[in-house]
């Protein structure tokens, strides 16, 4: 007969490396008596937050009756919840055996900070790591689970390709976001962007297959002036047959975006070559948004980006810079032969600093807009 679990004080360490100490807080969670069995799992309420490239701990602790069971027979399993009926294996441990799966290989380990610690460390966090994780602890007769949400600091950008608006089905929207250094945004991410003032009149796909759009300033051309503000939804749409724009999400850059100074304006092919000669590549749309939001890149000069569009980032709005709100201005998709623009280049962090004439980014500090 297993004994009932007693009152526990569980410390969930929600910390990143020392460089991210502003988020390195501890939470104490009180768990009342549980009469359901010998294994009780507790994860921290809410969510843990990091950024792409960071290291994060998904907190999970468990209690079991030592007198009733051999701790070496406890199995710990982490899975990622893709949807209510779909899971992806992340990490399994039993006794001294450890195994990571898929893209988590080489990036995950148990924290093992004392008895009952099943917390999972994820290093070099990717955009695809965003989401909900389940911590399951099992012995021969009992099991219990807890849920942890991993969130990323970053920025949403609405996107449509050169073909025009409402030309992407769900799968094409996924590919378009990936091609521009992003992933399809979640509803929570879009809602947060709306709370920060995002207003966009065109509907776009989200990662759950729904189609929505954020409205902060109701107007007749966006569903009538007398309708309330909020994230408006078309519901879940047919992923193959229906076509909309996309809402993409991206996070911190492992590198720098800069405007390349040249002695003359460039065509798109010339822009490709100019960045290459400077030891870089033409910046993707998501990289330009991340540089604007996170590195505070502010440049009132239009430049080519990777998808053939022309854009420029404005942190501090001013006269003749395209409006009164911060944002990434979009001049559309001009003919690639036009020699009318500069270029935004991107260089990975491991490849050194931009050459003279490029703009250096600031420290990690999300800009609320």
From TrEMBL:
InterPro entries: C-type_lectin-like/link_sf, CTDL_fold, Hyaluronan_bind_Proteoglycan, Ig-like_dom, Ig-like_dom_sf, Ig-like_fold, Ig_sub, Ig_sub2. PROSITE patterns: IG_LIKE, LINK_1, LINK_2. GO terms for biological process: cell adhesion; central nervous system development; glial cell differentiation; inhibitory synapse assembly; positive regulation of neuroblast proliferation; skeletal system development; synaptic transmission, GABAergic. Disulfide bonds join 201-222, 300-321. SMART domains: IG (SM00409), IGc2 (SM00408), IGv (SM00406), LINK (SM00445). Pfam families: V-set, Xlink. It is found in: Secreted, Extracellular space, Extracellular matrix. Gene3D superfamilies: Immunoglobulins, Mannose-Binding Protein A, subunit A. Keywords: Disulfide bond, Extracellular matrix, Glycoprotein, Hyaluronic acid, Immunoglobulin domain, Repeat, Secreted, Signal. Residues 18-153 form the Ig-like domain. Residues 155-250, 255-347 form the Link domain. GO terms for cellular component: extracellular space; perineuronal net; synapse. CDD domains: Link_domain_HAPLN_module_2. Belongs to the HAPLN family. Essential for the proper localization of brevican (BCAN), mainly as a perineuronal nets (PNNs)-type deposition in the brainstem and cerebellum thereby playing a key role in the formation and structural organization of PNNs. Contributes to the formation and transmission of inhibitory GABAergic synapses between Purkinje cells and deep cerebellar nuclei neurons. This is Hyaluronan and proteoglycan link protein 4. It comes from Chelonoidis abingdonii. The gene is HAPLN4.
